[in-house]
Design a protein that fits this description.
This protein has about 290 residues and is α/β, with parallel strands linked by helices. Helices cover about 35% and strands about 15% of the residues. The chain has helices at about 10, 50-60, 75-85, 100-115, 135-150, 175-180, 190-195, 200-205, 245-250, 270-285; strands at about 40, 65-70, 90-95, 120, 155-160, 170, 175, 185-190, 215-220, 220, 235, 255-260. It is globular and about 45 Å long. The chain has ten helices and twelve strands. About 45% of the residues are buried.
Length: about 290
């Protein structure tokens, strides 16, 4: 991927809303003061565990004060905002399907501004929507760049989250890199476990996005043959990924958030708590805190 030297100030401004800052540098961009470390939870992890109120309570109990939303959670912005405030939690990103941007970007902007979120992340492409060649990935990148411009005009930022299918190579570049070369204003949200499942070295791959990285999804892969009832996913730090290397690479590439995720947890509360404790142990040394 071409290293774009992208300024992150627009994207990061939303992370320090409590400070009233309209725009900050990457070095100054940090979670609110009551959050010791830039750890968040992807709410998809908790989707099968009670109401949104109960899910946010799990995040709060784990000592995490930031989440990544999944769409609107079938709630009004007013109701969701009330729950976020009640649990002392900020929304630092929202997963929003590409079709939602295509069909109603104005609604996406209105809702997310109302809940104080400033990063819109495209989370997944259905199989029929995935490009099949480099030209297609370039065209997708150009489309995303157009959406990024519309969002930036409203003070928001666009990001893109990968799975393993974006690791297909075209002339020595992965599809994801091809796409980002055509989308210099779009930030990367790299899912470490999916990169690992694609057979790539996650730490080495992250380095390709230096200056372009919004966040990583902190998700682990269980050893082969284990945790099959959870689709082979594991709590962060309990699986096979070299987290010292990954966290170091993410920090070096400018990651602002480390977002806990597990796609199919048997016990979401335990996963969130265990993963948070692991990151709380490992991140201070990486971040120099």
């Amino acid at each position: 991927m071409k290293k774009q030297g992208l300024l992150l100030s627009t994207a990061i401004a939303g992370f320090v809303v409590a400070a009233g800052a309209a725009s900050v540098s990457a070095q100054d961009a940090a979670p609110q003061e009551d959050a010791a470390l830039p750890i968040a939870v992807q709410m998809y992890t908790l989707r099968n565990f009670g109401s949104v109120d109960e899910q946010l309570a799990i995040v709060e109990e784990a000592g995490v004060s930031a989440v990544e939303l999944v769409g609107t959670h079938d709630m009004s912005a007013e109701d969701l905002n009330g729950l976020l405030d009640a649990h002392g939690i900020d929304a630092i990103s929202a997963h929003v399907q590409l079709d939602a941007l295509r069909s109603g970007i104005e609604d996406v902007i209105e809702f997310n501004k109302a809940v104080g979120n400033e990063v819109i992340t495209v989370p997944y492409l259905a199989e029929e929507a995935r490009p099949t060649d480099a030209e297609g990935w370039t065209a997708l990148g150009e489309e995303l760049e157009g959406f990024a411009g519309q969002l930036q005009a409203e003070g928001l930022q666009l990001a893109y989250h990968n799975h393993d299918f974006e690791m297909e190579e075209f002339d020595g570049q992965t599809a994801l890199e091809v796409m980002f070369d055509a989308a210099p204003s779009v930030l990367a949200q790299l899912d470490v476990a999916w990169i690992d499942r694609a057979g790539l070295d996650a730490a080495e791959y992250i380095a390709n996005f230096d200056g372009h990285l919004f966040a990583i999804h902190a998700k682990d892969n269980a050893p082969e043959g284990e945790a099959e009832e959870e689709d082979g996913w594991a709590a962060v730090g309990s699986g096979t990924i070299d987290w010292q290397a990954v966290l170091t690479a993410a920090n070096d590439a400018g990651a602002q958030w480390y977002i806990i995720e597990h796609d199919n947890p048997a016990d979401a509360s335990a996963i969130v708590d265990s993963s948070a404790r692991f990151l709380e142990q490992e991140l201070p040394g990486i971040l120099g805190e």
